[in-house]
Amino acid sequence: MTSSANLARLHGLNVAILVTDGFEQVELTEPCNALEAAGAITRIISAARGKVQGYNHDTKADQFDVDLTFADAEPDAFDAVLLPGGKLNGDRIRNNPEAQQFVRGMQEEGKPIAAICHGPWLLAATGLAKGRTLTSAPDLQGELRQAGASWVDREAVRDGNLVTSRKPDDIPAFNQAMIDVMAERVKASVRGTEDERPDVGAGS
Q1: Distance CA 36, CA 126 (A)
Q2: Is 202 helix (H, G, I), strand (E, B) or coil?
Q3: Pairwise CA distance, residues 21 & 166, whole Å
Q4: Lesser CB count within 10 Å: N end or C end of the chain?
Q5: Cross-sheet strand order for the sheet of 51-56
Q6: Distance of CA 152 to the CA centre of its chain
């Protein structure tokens, strides 16, 4: 649940949510609700137009409208990215070249990337895990370490612009860490805008 202190912290922030069929539904819906309550604008991005299928563990749950495809989405149009888990989703998305290209583009700009459960699989596949401290679903720890990450068993881990988490039970901690790093991005953007304003004095 998002605290009142989080309200409007992310006003106007555009967040891309990358999923394919088979994502763990609660790892999309609860973070998405927290982001929107904090003022962010969220968009679901997937491999194809239409709807994408959520799961409750191994059982089909709800379908969600896809806003953009991986092919159409541009990193420049977004300020941050959320990677929900689900083993089937994580396995599919890590092998999608367009999804890989998207997260690499986000990383090049140092934009926040938040990944939970099997979401960090994409970080390993793109080389973004190397040299970073991360967590994930426990069965990914070997692959993340092979990809050069330092894997730790904690409910939420932040390393610079990356936030990772293990499972649905960790969502409250994950949401808070995710919102904190994204709020810093908003503040930095506001400061940058202010620095670009012309100096308007009283005259010469």
Answers
A1: 28
A2: coil
A3: 20
A4: C
A5: 23-24, 51-56, 59-65
A6: 19
- Tell me which residue has tokens 């390393």: 159
Residue corresponding to tokens 């069965």:
139
The DSSP code sequence of 63-103 is EEE--EETTT--GGG-SEEEE---HHHHHHHHT-HHHHHHH
Q: Is-catalytic flag, 118?
A: yes
pLDDT at position 3 = 47
Give pLDDT tens digits for 118-168.
999 999 999 999 999 999 999 999 999 999 999 999 999 999 999 999 999
Residue 19: inside a domain, yes or no?
yes
Q: Which domain holds residue 85?
A: 4-192
pLDDT at residue 66 is higher than 90: yes
Q: What backbone phi and psi angles, to 5 degrees, belong to 164? A: -130, 155
- Strand, coil or helix: what is 59? strand
CA distances from 108 to 59, 132, 147 (A): 36, 15, 18
pLDDT score at 4: 46
Q: Does residue 73 contact residue 16 with C-beta atoms inside 8 Å?
A: yes
Does a structural domain hold residue 150?
A: yes
> Which single residue is written with the structure tokens 């990383």?
107
Residue 198 is predicted with a pLDDT of 52
DSSP three-state, residue 53:
strand
Number of domains the chain contains: 1
Q: Is residue 72 part of a domain?
A: yes
Assigned token pair, 38: 């904090």
Has residue 200 been placed in a domain?
A: no
